[in-house]
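TL;DR need C-alpha cells for one chain.
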Amino acid sequence: MRPALDRSHLPHACGVYIMRDASGLILYIGKAIDLAKRVAQYFNPNKDDLKVAILAPLIRKIDYIPCASEREALILERRLI
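>> reply
TL;DR here they are.
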C-alpha cells in the first residue's frame, strides 16, 4: 500500500491545482475556491466516482497557483488546459 500523499502545503484559498504522476506528467488541472478542501475530495474513500478511483492512486505530487478570485482561477485553469 502506498503512503498517503502529503497535502498539508495546500492552503484554504482560491487557486488552481495541478496533479502530477511519478514522472511529473500532468494528470489533471482544476480550480477551487478552497484548494485544501477541493483536493481532499479526491482522497475520500467514501466517494463513489470512477474518475477519482482511477486518478487518485496515480497522483504523486500536487502543485498549486494561488489566485485572487474565483474568476481569476477559472481563467488560469482554462489557459493551462
